[in-house]
Design a protein that fits this description.
seven-stranded mixed sheet; alpha+beta; 150 residues; Aminopeptidase; 7 strands
């Protein structure tokens, strides 16, 4: 087995990113629109991880974090998320927000804390995720909003 590479996403990755997200039961929305902020993990010529951000002023929304089950527990997911957050920080982001179903414990490793929807700053409320979660009461029971200072 080959090494796991980390690189910026390309147009040719969109279908594979969408497939990975669907496999993990995550929404595969607006990938192409935010592709320039996506990073991927690649192994043996296949895409095995992805994560992206949406930028709203000094805030980002971390999104679409998925790693193939074969890589769980190897530290590759942490490497991917750490790189994405560092890239956003270097680009001037000061705060990060996200939504998760069951991975809150994973994201606390990066300084994220649970918060309320109302804790998202106004600019970050422009994200499709915030609008979707805030408008659907049924989702609120299953989704955990989180925030962190970068």
């Amino acid at each position: 087995m080959g090494a796991v590479g980390l690189r910026g996403a390309r147009d040719s990755d969109v279908v594979a990113i969408e497939a990975l997200l669907k496999t993990e039961m995550l929404p595969a929305m607006e990938i192409q629109e935010w592709l320039s902020t996506f990073w991927v993990l690649e192994k043996d010529g296949g895409l095995v991880g992805c994560a992206g951000t949406e930028r709203y002023g000094e805030a980002i929304v971390l999104r679409s974090v998925a790693v193939d089950p074969s890589l769980r527990g190897t530290g590759e997911g942490e490497r991917l998320v750490g790189h994405v957050l560092n890239d956003a920080r270097q680009g001037g982001a000061k705060r990060a927000y996200l939504f998760t179903g069951s991975a809150a414990g994973f994201f606390t490793r990066f300084g994220f804390e649970r918060c309320e929807l109302t804790d998202f700053e106004a600019a970050a409320r422009e994200s499709w995720q915030w609008r979707g979660v805030s408008s659907q009461e049924s989702l609120k029971a299953f989704i955990t909003p989180m925030r962190a200072n970068l």
